[in-house]
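pls ignore typos typing on phone
coenzyme A + seq
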Amino acid sequence: MERLSTVTFAKPADEGELYDILADTDMGLAGDIGEHIVLREGAAIRAGGRLYQADEALFHLMVFAVAGDERGRGTGRRFLRALTAGPWLHCRGGVEPPGGSYRITTMAKGSATGFYARAGFRPCKAAQLPALFAGQCEGCPDREECGPVPMVYTGSSRELPERGRD
Ligand SMILES: CC(C)(COP(=O)(O)OP(=O)(O)OC[C@H]1O[C@@H](n2cnc3c(N)ncnc32)[C@H](O)[C@@H]1OP(=O)(O)O)[C@@H](O)C(=O)NCCC(=O)NCCS
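k done
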């Protein structure tokens, strides 16, 4: 049975907890805490990330992580599914793509490509990422160890059930 969880924007008070989840895998907060999204169960944050809307039909997942002791229990899948189903709902000021279809890109850690592939992402060229992020790993001292892979997900809001569009 799936556990009860909610996906919401992070609040200022969440900053320390989300920072710890991201720092555990050498990631950091990507800008203002209020731009991030978190998956909560009760009062606890189980996962967090940040989505960015680059243009009306292109989104970029800047950071994404599940709390260390939560991994391998389906939490990442549930969180990512919520984000891919309606990414505009999880970006501050997000706008639903007028044509219905959209893409979500990310620069996946090499160790996480299998996870993203299970969720429908496919490897792509770095040039398919929003220009702001296409070169994000260049010059990073951890690049070789991390083995980043650009990936893309293609979705359509027209495939959502009616209640999903409310
Ligand atoms: C990668 C991460 C987000 C996965 O979250 P998770 O909650 O552990 O994953 P889930 O339990 O929801 O797994 C969903 C599916 O993906 C698979 N999977 C999970 N991690 C995987 C990995 N690293 N490689 C291959 N498959 C993986 C699971 O086996 C499961 O498969 P199933 O559909 O056959 O059951 C999490 O391990 C994490 O936060 N890692 C550290 C940070 C990180 O790498 N973030 C991604 C940055 S780009």
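The mean pLDDT is 93. Strands lie at 6-9, 37-41, 44-55, 58-66, 101-108, 122-123, 149-156. more later
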